[in-house]
Amino acid sequence: MIERYKSRCRSRCGFTLVELMAVISIIVTLVALLLPAIQNAREAARRTQCSNNLRQMALAIHNYAHAHQVLPPGCVNNTGPILTKQDGYHVSWCVQILPFLEERTMYAAMDFSVSVYAEQKAYLGNVDVFGCPSSAAGGGYAGCHHDVEALIDVDNNGVLYLNSSVALSDITDGLGQTILIGESTPSPFGWVSGTAGTLRNTGTAINDMVAPVGYIISPDPETIDVDYVGGFSSSHGPGAQFVMCNGTVRYISDSIDHAVFKRLGHRADGMLLGEF
Fold first, then answer.
1. DSSP string across 151-164
2. What is the pLDDT at residue 12?
3. 122, 211, 228, 265: which has the fewest Cβ within 10 Å?
4. How confident is the model at residue 227, as a pLDDT?
5. Model-level pTM greater than 0.85?
C-alpha cells in the first residue's frame, strides 16, 4: 500500500510537456507586455536628459551674455558665407561657452591661433552635454542661425550666426518665442565647427530629411553638399526638443504650421505668434 502511494507521488513529480509549454508561453507574454513599458521608460529618461542638456547650454549662454553683454557668436570666421566644409577658422558657439560649462581646462588648452579642425580630434566627443542620449548616431544640438534655408552669414535673422553679437534686448519678438538651440542630426564636423555641425535654421521643417544626397547619412565630410545647412531633427518621435531664448525647453511637433515654425527662427520680425 505504501509502495503504491510512493509510486503515485513519483509519477506526479515535475511538469508535463504541456505544462512546461504553458509556463513558457505565459513568460513570453509577460515579457512582450513589459518590454514596451521598459523601452518607454528608458526613452522618457533619455528625453529628460536631453532637455537637461538644453537647459545647461542655455544657462551657459546666458552666463556668457552676462559676462560679455551679448550672446556668443554662432561662428567666428574672417569671411563669409560659411560653407559646410572643413576649410576655415570656424570656431563654434559651443567652443565659446566651454568655460561656462565647467570646461575651463579644455577651453584653455585649445589653440585659438589655428583652425578648429587642427584641434578637433583632441576634443571631439568629450563634452556629454553636446550629445543627445537618444541618438545612436551621435546627433547633438544646433543653434538657430536663420529663419530660411540659406548659408550661415553675417546678415542672418537668428540669434547665433557668423560673427554675431546679439544682445538679449535685440530679441524683440520675445525671448520665449525665439529659438536658441534645438536638436539636430549627426555631423562629421562635431561641436567645434561653426558650420551646419552646430547651426541650423527653421527654413526647413522639423525632421524633414529631404536634403542633398550625402549630407545627413554620410560620415565622410568630402561628400557633403557644401551649400546646404539644413534644419532641426530628433530621435524623440514626431517632433524635436528646443530651448527658447528665455531658457524654456519646448517639445515642438513636426506637424506645427511651417509658417509659424519659421517665425520662431527670427529674432525680430515683429509678428505675433500666439500659442504653438
1. -B-TT-SSSS-BT-
2. 54
3. 122
4. 81
5. no
